[in-house]
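Let's practice the habit of predicting before peeking. Look at the sequence and jot down your guess about where helices and strands might fall. Then scroll down.
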Amino acid sequence: MAQDGTRVERVTTEGDWFEPYKIALAWKVGDLVFTSGQAAITEQGEIVGLGDFDAQVVQTMKNVARVLELAGSSMKDIVKVNIYVTDMTNFPKVLELREKYFSYPWPADTIVEVTSLAIPGLMIEVDATAVVSAARR
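Done guessing? Here is the structure:
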């Protein structure tokens, strides 16, 4: 609990796949959820889709959805995303990602090309800010 009475809660699960990296899956602060960057890593810590951007997008977004679910939120509750890619030539595929996983009114979005991500072989990472809908409180 924050000093002002706001509820602050670490989001985790049995077998938290980020624990070895000393990172929280997400934090829930009041009715907002802030995820850590999610990538193409299974809950067992294995990389999915080496060299396959499309496969990495699927696993990454599956992880975003899973973390939001653990926090009592969902993909439709996302208000802001940051997308990091190692190759901006994949931007057309990012547009497809937005259309497949998000809906109108689109979340605020930042996309950045980076030299590399935390683990060699990762091609995309996504972090999100979402609200916890009244129905899920």
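How did you do? The two ends are 17 Å apart (CA to CA).
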